[in-house]
Amino acid sequence: MTGIETMRAVVVDGFGGPEQVRVAEVEVPRPGAGQVRVRVRAAGVNPVDGAVRAGVFGGAGQRIGLGWDVAGEIDEVGQGVEGWTPGRRVVGLHYGTVKPLGTHAEYAVLDASAVAAAPESVEAAVAAALPLSGLTAARALALLGLAEGDSVLITGAAGSVGGIAVQLAARAGLTVTALAGEGDEELVRSLGAKEFLPRGSAPAEPVDGVLDAAVLGAAALGFVRDGGAYVGLIPGAAPAAERGVRVVEQEVAADGAELARLVGLVDAGALTLRVARNFDLADAAAAHEALATPGTRGRVVLTVS
């Protein structure tokens, strides 16, 4: 990249609703040691972005950049980076809640260990739906510690994280019960769920584990057999353990190696990514409005031209 010193980036300067989201002209970041800079082509808009915008994680008085997911190509590498060269198409996770710049920008700097080669079988706007949702689902399933043939109930199974979790769980040989809205039965069964549970109801028999993507808390814990496992996705929001149930709170981490495994599943046709709506970077505020729309199925994505 020659001669370009500024770029567009989505930021918030105060907390509130989508009206707080603006596109600012900021200095293009440079990669430090062990980092790569990515020319962003697409970036997912996740619930955590809405939470940052609303002030859930603090940062009052600061300009805060938004965006965790990214799909694009490397345009500069920092000192000591091996294995990555400019022009390589990648996906990655830019972890962090209160940060001056995120991936909702024309360029983003990530640790080299946080990126993986992009899927060959899907375009950037679809690939951008993978990093945060995929890594969250994969980590949550690993923390459940279930074995092939065990039963798992996944709440919020029609959502982005839940839908990926259903696919990964079914692929691992688990018997999957998907809890979702009544209109989502066909969808979640197509993703690999053996059983369907309408929202507001309970399974006929306790399950070995629950992955609580819908953050139902104590209600979902009640679905687990004595001595089973429960994994929540929001730190600090899990219910108190009872009946010998192992309760774990997962927090996603940037993991290029695990992301590469998930990319392989996408390219093998074993993992389907879903995009609900696509917005231009300039329309980031409208993307946040769409993010808050009930019943959204799939990831809202920003594209950068």
Structural class: alpha/beta
Q: Helix and strand succession?
A: EEEHEEEEEHHEHEHEEHEEHEHE
CA(first)-CA(last) distance? 15 Å
Strand portion: 25-35%
Total number of helices: 8
Overall pLDDT confidence: 95
Count of strand segments: 16
Uncertain parts: none
Radius of gyration: 19 Å
| Broad shape | globular
Question: How is the biggest beta sheet arranged?
Answer: 7 strands, mixed
Give the fraction of residues assigned to helices: 10-25%
In short:
Helices cover 22% and strands 31% of the residues.
Question: Could you walk me through the main structural features you see in this protein, from its secondary elements to its overall organization?
Answer:
- Strand 15, helix 8 and strand 16 form a beta-alpha-beta unit.
- The chain is built from 8 helices and 16 strands.
- 22% of the residues lie in helices and 31% in strands.
- Strands 3, 5, 6, 7, 8, 15 and 16 form a 7-stranded mixed sheet that branches. A 6-stranded parallel sheet has the order 11-10-9-12-13-14.
- The longest helix is centred in the middle third of the chain and has 14 residues, at 131-144.
- The protein is globular and about 65 Å long.
- The mean pLDDT is 95.
- With 305 residues, it is α/β, with parallel strands linked by helices.
Which key terms come to mind for this protein?
22% helix, 6-stranded parallel β-sheet, 305 residues, 7-stranded mixed β-sheet, globular, alpha/beta
Sequence-ordered SSE layout with sheet pairings:
Layout: E1 6-12, E2 21-27, E3 35-45, H1 47-54, E4 64-65, E5 69-77, E6 89-93, E7 107-111, E8 115-117, H2 124-127, H3 131-144, E9 151-155, H4 160-171, E10 175-180, H5 185-190, E11 195-198, E12 207-212, H6 218-221, E13 224-232, E14 246-249, H7 256-267, E15 275-280, H8 284-291, E16 299-303
Parallel strand pairs: 9-10, 9-12, 10-11, 12-13, 13-14, 15-16
Antiparallel strand pairs: 1-2, 1-4, 3-5, 3-7, 3-16, 5-6, 6-8
Helix pairs in contact: 3-4
